[in-house]
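tl;dr need the bound structure. longer version: we got a ligand (protoporphyrin IX containing FE) that a collaborator sent over and nobodys looked at where it sits. i said id run it. heres the input, straight from their email, havent touched it
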Amino acid sequence: MELLVAVSSILIIIVTVLLLNLLFKRTSSSTAKNNANAPPSPPGLPVIGNLLQLGRHPHRSLCSLSHRYGPLMLLHLGKVPVLVVSSADAARGVLKTYDLAFASRPRSKLFKKLLYDGRDVALAPYGEYWRQMKRSTVSNKMIRSFRNVREKEVKLMTEKIEKAASSSSPLNVSEIFTTLTNDVICRVALGRKYGGDVNFEELMRRFTKMLGKFCVSDHVPWLGWIDRICGLDDELEKIGNEFDEFLEGVVKDHLDGEGNTADFVDVLLEIQREKKLGFEIDMVGIKAIILDVFVGGTDTSSTLLEWAMTELMRHPESMNRLKEEVRCCTVGRHKQNVSEDGIHEMKYLKAVIKESLRLHPPLPLLAARESIRHAKFQGYDIPLGTQVMINAWAVGRETATWGVDAEVFRPERHLDSDVDFRGQDFKLVPFGAGRRICPGIAFAIAIDELALANAVHRFDWKTAKGTNEDRTGEVSESTGIPVHRLSPLIAFAHPT
Ligand code: HEM
């Protein structure tokens, strides 16, 4: 939405420029013309190129465009050339064959302020700093462990649902899942929960909203003043400073020795103290990595849970099959919570998670990459500095891979299939693949499987009328990052 508003204001301003451009026969395809061997490009407007074609839901618009221009398209988002990848085959090329060539991340004004200008892992440019930080910090086995935290927080979640069920009140299921993933990540990463702290929740909400905003100056630098007059620059400065202050406080508490269980911040401080990296990790680096875990792990994991539950409630036969499986694996313990031990045998549960990730990848366009050298890719010349968007949403719905019922939620399709999302298979890439693959897969899946198994095991669910589907029978998507439901999932729970 922000993108549309910003682009509309640009449009008014650039009418003059448009006329001048037409006068001098200078169109946005000039870049493509310079590169005779570029992938096909949809025609765009002068100055803004293909920006308007992104629409409210870029993953959907780009998927439609790819049906016309092919699985490799070159778009121009303002001055930025963007290679859009929309098939499993092309994704394999970028994420495997040419992984190194496309291993960097583009810079952006938003990320510069909010995520410490690439001093984290997720947005660090490709190089030694990123390599060391990823290997030694985020992929630390601590992030994958913390089983007791997950089980305790899921138990609190079921108690909360039980309480609402006993008073027959409708539940905001989306909110329950958001609180769960926030609390788990807070305890793992920061050492304590901040849920219920109104200021923190409000700050998180503003921070996430800001991350999804559109910055004119990233695409048309000479129109950067629009960001200023729209108030974006001020807001960015304010939220960046407030969050920084919050993180300073968290690190200080840890340095002062508050809290008695080791968490992720403690691990980072130990790495710093013992100089475990080949270089010094400073306070900015520490704050940036905490933020990665926080921003990368909370909203994405709850979005996956929200979509999985939405699909199960729309497909009672799948819900019943999952309930049956969980019941069989927990014989004699039906009043108790499912533990992580029981989860391993639950094949249908894993299929439900996979199918939800296929149809609703929380980050449908993954995280943008940028080429660090010229690449000759599938016969096309891709120059250095080209951004790459991988449309995981389109890849997950390709009929060539998934058949004529690709749009249908059918977890059974995964039961006899080896296709997986851990980076070896390019038909399902919700976590990316290759060097920049998400290091939080095991952590996210562990919490989501446990929460879903318990939610269906302990309760029967019924959607509150009129809150689920829109008039077309579909569930509308939000704008921004990640893509969750437009309206929260509201439902009644009855203890089984
Ligand atoms: C369902 C939950 C999650 C989804 C869908 C998700 C998705 C992604 C995607 C698509 C990428 C970009 C991959 C690429 O460029 O190839 C990524 C990167 C990343 N994710 Fe996740 N993620 C999730 C959970 C987590 C969690 C729980 C953490 C931390 C504990 C995390 C931390 C990161 C980091 C640090 C990166 C940057 C890696 C790099 O640039 O080298 N994510 N994630």
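gonna send this back to them w/ a short note. The chain has a mean pLDDT of 87.
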